[in-house]
Design brief:
Blueprint lengths: L3 E3 L10 H10 L10 H18 L5 E6 L2 H12 L3 E6 L2 H12 L3 E6 L19 E5 L1 E2 L4 E2 L2 H10 L4 E5 L16 E5 L11 E6 H12 L10 H8 L10 H17 L1 H21 L3 E3 L11 E6 L3 H9 L3 E5 L8 E5 L6 H14 L1
Parallel strand pairs: 1-13, 3-4, 3-5, 5-8, 8-9
Antiparallel strand pairs: 2-10, 6-7, 9-10, 11-12, 12-14, 13-14
Helix pairs in contact: 1-8, 2-8, 9-11
The structure holds pyridoxal-5'-phosphate.
Length: 359
């Protein structure tokens, strides 16, 4: 039996990755032109499959970048002339906020202590803000922003663009696409692929905003900005030479997930999350870090540990199980258990059995 990775990214590979990767090599996808019909067909198929999988309606386009981090930068640079607002409750949301300051925008934030979420009714966003940036699943702390809270923000601030980082949760969250303007993710988390591809789902309102800023003389980053992605994307192409192999692979994984049924995947994710949280609640060794059940992530479960986390992680290695360490300053006192579609219910049962035996 091979190793099972419960790490939150890079993560366990989706079971069909190997098959599709071999097929991609047989099709010579490492060598084909990115300005030809074959590539355009792959681009079209992958975006169509993602739209079906995630229920994305007409009016949204999908673009590819090198990473999700890149989309933080390009979104701020292309879509805000003056200011952005950030919900900060961990290391990833904080970096998105800091990028805004670094590129010279007025960056506002609402900050929650580590392990806690937001009472959004109590938060008000200044009128000059153009972009509201939410991290739906904060991978460093295991805190989620409930999708209903994100939708409620759009109801309250219809004039502002809502950006959602769903890097470590998609395809789990079920967005109402009338209530979000942008969603971004990368493939090495819940899609179970090797790292190296960012995906930006964008609506027309966002594109109009970028065009209006450009017309006012605003200058966005030259390598990948929203309008260069839009221009090339209209031909099912990318501005620079893309990761054709992974664009192909993502289309195939999305098709496999479609065949399984996104509702089945979401149900299974919730079942596995409940199993892991139930185990942690009962255990003497583990304790869920996030106390408010509504804010507990279903895809990245973070637990405080009584023994040093490194010892626990080491003890599972002989069983071919790889757990994630705590993030940053929580490295010694927490473990992170990724619950992505690539790990099965049987894998989670085995993890719980081993942990129960050991502790
Ligand atoms: C991993 C992660 C990112 C960064 O993704 P990259 O593909 O490494 O750029 C951004 N946001 C969240 C919430 C993440 O978990």
């Amino acid at each position: 039996m091979g190793k099972i990775f419960f790490t939150p990214g890079p993560a366990h590979l989706y079971p069909t990755v190997q098959k599709h990767l071999l097929e991609a090599l047989n099709l010579n996808l490492g060598s084909i032109s990115h300005r030809g019909k074959q590539f355009q067909g792959i681009f079209a198929e992958t975006t169509a499959n993602l739209k079906s999988l995630l229920g994305i309606p007409e009016g949204f386009n999908i673009y590819f970048t090198g990473s999700a981090t890149e989309i933080w930068e390009k979104s701020l640079s292309s879509c805000a002339g003056k200011s952005s607002f950030h919900f900060v409750n961990g290391s990833f949301s904080k970096k998105y906020f800091e990028f805004s300051k670094e590129i010279g925008l007025a960056a506002y934030k609402a900050e929650a202590p580590m392990g806690e979420g937001f009472d959004i009714a109590k938060i008000s966003i200044p009128s000059e803000v153009e972009m509201i940036c939410c991290t739906q699943n904060e991978t460093s702390t295991g805190v989620q922003m409930p999708v209903a809270d994100i939708h409620a923000l759009k109801d309250r601030y219809a004039d502002k663009l809502v950006f959602v980082d769903a890097v470590s949760s998609l395809p789990h969250p079920n967005f109402d696409w009338n209530k979000v303007d942008n969603v971004l993710f990368s493939v090495q988390k819940a899609f179970g692929m090797p790292a190296g591809l960012g995906v930006w789902i964008v609506n027309q309102k966002t594109i109009e905003k970028a065009k209006a800023l450009k017309a006012q003389g605003h200058v966005a980053t030259p390598y990948h900005n929203l309008l260069s992605l839009v221009e090339n994307g209209s031909k099912n192409e990318t501005p620079a030479t893309p990761n054709t192999l992974y664009i192909y692979l993502l289309g195939k994984i999305a098709a496999d997930m479609l065949a399984k049924g996104v509702e089945n995947i979401r149900k299974e994710t919730s079942t596995k999350a409940q199993m892991i949280y139930d185990f942690c609640e009962k255990s003497e060794m583990f304790d869920p870090f996030v106390k408010n059940i509504a804010h507990r992530s279903e895809t990245v479960i973070v637990a405080n540990t009584k023994s040093p986390a490194a010892e626990i992680i080491e003890s599972l290695k002989k069983d071919q199980i790889v757990l994630g360490a705590g993030y940053g300053s929580f490295k010694d006192s927490q473990v992170r258990i990724a619950n992505f579609p690539a790990v099965s219910i049987e894998n989670v049962e085995m993890l719980i059995k081993k942990l129960s035996n050991n502790y």
